[in-house]
Design brief:
Blueprint (H helix, E strand, L loop, with lengths): L9 E2 L34 E6 L4 E9 L5 E8 L4 E10 L2 E8 L5 E10 L2 E9 L4 E9 L5 E8 L5 E8 L6 E7 L5 E9 L5 E8 L2 E9 L5 E10 L2 E11 L10 H7 L1 E2 L9
Antiparallel strand pairs: 1-18, 2-3, 2-17, 3-4, 4-5, 5-6, 6-7, 7-8, 8-9, 9-10, 10-11, 11-12, 12-13, 13-14, 14-15, 15-16, 16-17
């Protein structure tokens, strides 16, 4: 069966894509996007991932610049051993590159972000040698919101695309359709929001695969945790939960305007996500 490129999208004034075989996974939603693409406000200092039994399986720690943008995240495994890092670089407040390093500080991949004005128009994924792997082109509406995009694999020449529409039956839901090179749908992701505009659920459908990501917020509006559930037969099974830790003197709180700009965050490709 053909392996799809399923795109990762963050819908705001700019976007973030990721792909299956590298550091991030297709359709991965990330709470960190608002501190990379938006008006940074310094987010959580640490992220602790626990499995369904409550055991720690992964830890990430974050460093921010003076403007609140995320500039580095470092990873450690369940035994506390270093598991690499990601570095974000900015120019005039816009992220221009994302570099992923392995355990020995060796470059694994690089993402270059290309803008027209302040709107992200292209994303180029490169390997550790600087060779282009996948190129994405993006389309926005008159308000600068992302509505569609297309990704092309430099080697296989495979092309996949997506489009985003409001759910005609539910005002608090957005739907992202994932399309193959013949524009035939092979999956979709539903984004559900609460009355405050918070993303509370992402539901992913592809063939027989069905997955849900549920998000929980604190009273001040900051994200407290998010969990991943997969449907097995008629039952939902918890896979893992990400818990966020904030410094008391620098808690993250996103303004209403920022929430409006965020608007939509993409789902994920579960089997490959870390």
């Amino acid at each position: 069966m053909k392996r799809f490129l399923i795109l990762t999208i963050t819908l705001i004034a700019s976007v973030l894509f990721t792909l299956p075989s590298f550091a991030f996974t297709p359709g991965k939603w990330s709470h960190k996007d608002q501190f990379v693409f938006f008006k940074g406000k310094k987010g959580p200092s640490k992220e602790i991932v626990r499995n369904s039994e409550g055991q720690v399986i992964y830890v990430a720690e974050y460093i921010y610049d003076a403007d609140g943008h995320l500039v580095q995240e470092t990873y450690s495994d369940k035994e506390g051993k270093s598991d690499g890092k990601t570095i974000f670089r900015y120019t005039e407040g816009l992220v221009t590159s994302e570099e992923v390093y392995g355990q020995n500080d060796t470059l694994v991949e690089r993402k270059d972000f290309v803008y027209k004005g302040k709107i992200l128009k292209r994303l180029i994924i490169k390997n550790f040698e600087g060779k282009n792997l996948i190129s994405y082109s993006l389309e926005t509406n008159k308000d600068g919101m992302l509505v569609s995009g297309e990704g092309k694999n430099s080697e296989s020449k495979d092309i996949e695309s997506f489009r985003i529409i409001p759910d005609p039956k539910k005002l608090n839901v957005q739907i992202q359709f994932l399309l193959d090179d013949k524009k035939i749908k092979h999956g979709e992701i539903h984004f559900k929001y609460d009355a405050k505009g918070n993303l509370v659920e992402r539901e992913f459908f592809q063939a027989e695969f069905h997955r849900v990501n549920k998000l929980k917020y604190k009273a001040d509006g900051s994200l407290e945790s998010f969990s991943f559930h997969v449907k097995q037969g008629d039952n939902w099974v918890l896979e893992k939960t990400h818990f966020l830790v904030y410094d008391e003197n620098s808690k993250s709180k996103v303004s209403k305007q920022d929430k409006k700009e965020e608007f939509l965050t993409n789902g994920n490709n579960p089997p490959l996500e870390h």
